[in-house]
Amino acid sequence: MAITLDTVELPDDLAWPDRYSWQAVDVSVEYSLTGAAIVQSAEKQAGRPITLQSTEQRAWVTRLIVDALKVLQADPEATYSLSVRGESYTVVIQSIEASPLFDWADDSDSCAVTLKMITV
Fold first, then answer.
1. Which residue in 66, 87, 109, 117 is a FRET match for 97, CA 20 to 30 A apart?
2. Dihedral of CA 102/104/109/115: which sign?
3. Domain encompassing residue 102
4. Overall domain count for the chain
């Protein structure tokens, strides 16, 4: 299944290392003066971190794709639609890191990329 961020198509084999680290419900426990536990819980409305990354072995993108992602990131108030393997999210871009795998200075050169986003 495809991965898209706004209109930018990304490799479908990007890894999502923090997929299962998100806790949708926040629970806090405090103790009263009598020693009784006071438990409060609430569902988080937004703020889920989503990291998508390639490696030197897979899920490479071209420099043209990196440039397109950097254009999206340049708008500090924009939100984007992210579709990952059939799931949809509204996100802001926190950071984009890319490392060319070869240094041929060609727009079709392959890069390993890490995209860090947060749901809103």
1. 87
2. positive
3. 3-21+45-119
4. 1
